[in-house]
Specification:
Length: about 140
């Protein structure tokens, strides 16, 4: 069994998903990797959590299809928040069809991770997505 790297020690991250199982799996894996995780089940709640904070989350994982406010609208509104403008938002989606990755990136997501989440590769996928970012590379290059 592959060991989950403690890549996110001291990081505060936000996970948004209306499916409780996905929320729990993502949260548990991120906690094993050292993150402090805030979970919400919809975009409205997520935006409120972001606005209530004085410091930005290190990154956000958001489902795309949710009631009340979907991931697309949440991303757009997060981009309007000055403190969140440079914070990576990664889409979580069960709709991993041809062209979806490009659509996500064009909208402003860093990238997307397909659901169901693979517990063995989930943290590695996030590390791989964040490492090319200049602010994140020094934090992750030793992992």
């Amino acid at each position: 069994m592959m060991k989950i790297p403690r890549a996110f020690v001291g990081w505060e991250v936000l996970v948004v998903d209306d499916e409780q199982d996905n929320l729990e799996v993502a949260s548990r894996l991120l906690k094993i990797a050292g993150a402090t995780v805030t979970m919400t089940s919809n975009g409205v709640e997520a935006l409120q959590k972001v606005q209530a904070r004085s410091a930005p989350y290190k990154f956000v994982l958001s489902d795309l299809s949710m009631p009340d406010m979907d991931g697309w609208e949440l991303l757009y509104l997060l981009q309007q928040e000055k403190v969140m403008q440079n914070i990576p938002v990664i889409a979580l989606t069960a709709h991993a069809m041809a062209g979806d990755r490009e659509r996500c990136i064009a909208a402003g997501f860093l990238d997307h991770i397909s659901k169901p989440l693979d517990p063995m590769s989930f943290i590695q996928q996030i590390i791989k997505l964040l490492t090319p970012l200049p602010d994140y590379a020094p934090l992750l290059e030793t992992i």
